Amino acid sequence: MLEANMLSFRYNRQQQWLFQNLDLRIAPGEIVGLPGPSGRGKSTLAKILAGYLTAVHGSVLADGRPLPRSGYCPVQLLFQHPELAVNPRWKAGDILAEAGQPDAALLQDLGIEPAWLTRYPHELSGGELQRICLVRALTAHTRYLLCDEMTSMLDPLSQAHIWQRVLDIAEKRKLGLLVISHDKALLDKLCHRTNHYFATIADFPLLTIRFP
Fold it and tell me: Is the N or C terminus of the chain more exposed, i.e. has fewer CB atoms within 10 Å?
């Protein structure tokens, strides 16, 4: 289980708390939704859960252990803007190699063409680059995947395709997923349950993703 225990965070002592005493649990194979308006701290929470930031108070445990400070982390984060999560001077193949040899079956599952691996990030569409980031995140060591508005910048067809693949992979590998989104329809479609710490369902607009 991925556990956030009594997390509190603010960026400096002069600012008010982004969140306080926040608890969150994600079991292997479980899909948990996290809605709420922008600026409430959802993305900050995701960065803490993945080890990019450290909470002022509280702890994060993955399967009973603190997140590792080096090597592979069992918790991986997918950002809303994939172009900000990669080195623009590296080709897609090099981006994948950073996390180890990519799984050929996974590349095929996500529809990644061999030609994409020879291109730089700016030569790929948003959907193509997000697929590359997804492969990089899904190493054999990954147990929990945090999806921070990861398809909100994509067209509906690309969104549906990526989410269908993520669901298939999560079910096969028994991954725990945290889905951060403003989209009520998406959360209703994907999630087993929703954590309302940052907002109630009424606080964010109803958008639609059509699944094939």
Answer: C
